[in-house]
Amino acid sequence: MGIAREVFGETLPVAERYAAFLADAGVERGLIGPREADRLWERHLINCAVVAEAIPADAQVVDIGSGAGLPGVVLAIVRPDLRITLLEPLLRRTTFLDECVEMLDLRNVEVRRARAEDVTKEFSVDVATARAVAPLERLAKWALPLLRPGGELLALKGERAAAELDEAEPVLQRFGVRETELLQVGRGMVDPPTTLVRVVAGRPADRSAAAGRRQSAPRRAGRSRKRSS
User: Which residues does the record give as S-adenosyl-L-methionine binding sites (predicted)?
Assistant: First the structure.
């Protein structure tokens, strides 16, 4: 809890209420596995909260496939400056999320029952987040149309992050993304640190042009790869 205090600061009481709700209703309704209840803080809450390091101030965020609110609800707690839409297609999950938002009085959050691919014309956000939703090659197809030019997809990934980035290369090329990168956040707070795949969206014109030509593979720089817009 010492690390939780460091991460959440004055919002820790709100995070504690959320953790209690996850351990109770979240488990009862099948949104969190029974074995996860005893490790909610290190495996879920802190793991998600440190993603805030990679999000700019006052950003508009859409959390794709929000499920039980990971990472969307956690980010809304730790970063009240963010405006967050929790995007989730399943009714039982949006019901849970609505209850979370009301109970925690999260005034910076909207819950939307929809699939990402059905609302592409309604969003032009700064950041899209996702955790345990789909492989990157599928996730990119859903997320990139929701981003403004220069907006970022931040996908929480595990040991296969680099492999997923390689596998998604053809899709990312078709969308004309500006840059891709592997990031680790939360060093010294979570072990191992949280791994993010960061994908920067290109301009709409870049995407349509990219669909009609084969682009050369971007150059690696450490664990990042960049392509010019």
Answer: 65, 70, 116-117, 131
